[in-house]
Please model this.
Amino acid sequence: MSSRCRNAIRLRKLSLFGLVAVLLAISACDNSPAAQTDENAHRALPELSDEIPAIQNAAYTEGTRRLVQDTFDSIQTIQNKIRNEGLPPWMMETEEVRISLAEYVFTLKTKELIYALNQLTEKPSGEEVLRHMITEALTVHHAKQIGITVTPEEVKGMIDMQRRAMKDTGPKTSAEQLTLYIMEQRIRITGLSEEEFWNSEELYSAYEAAIYMNKLMGHILADEDLKGTESYEALQAELYKDFRKKHRIKVPDLSELETL
Model:
């Protein structure tokens, strides 16, 4: 089997770690305007890789549970403050990219959480996080533009598969227990029941976007004239470069929102 084929299979492989990657990317499951429109399909999230996020070595301890809970409590408090103070909901709104301030806060804080769980001393910068969010949205938009499609059956099948992974009662490693706890906290701050969460439009849109990105990667890997992941990354860099030429990108200052 060629390395391209192995990579394509790996990118389609799902696991409990892949599930938390999707759940952490769903930042519109609050009451912000982003959660009140079906245009959330423009939002994107990581490919469904079993390497995202890399928390396989994190321990399930009282300390890590407290860190996870405090992070999601902080996110919920800041998002409530955004709503209650009537701040402008959209920090970026174009044909290709729609990002709310609440979404940005969620993504930044959860990325910081993953860094902390991995015991990394540095933190992702706001600029890096915003660039990542914009790039993912542009990637999904590009996939749609070149004719890649995703069916409701594919999305629902993926959601069902991941829900079964969450419900699996078999023995779990310490990192898997932590992953489940992260997912529980993620669902908790939405204000939805577990059943409502799994059947929400926001969850559907998040998985749909993930599949678009995965299919685009598969499309590139299948083209022998391209250079696999290098071509995928080059495409994303070019999409972002072109976007910056047309739109002003400003990283929000969260200092006042974080003063609680």
User: Anything to note?
Assistant: The chain is about 60% helix and 5% strand. Residues 62-84 form the longest helix (23 residues).
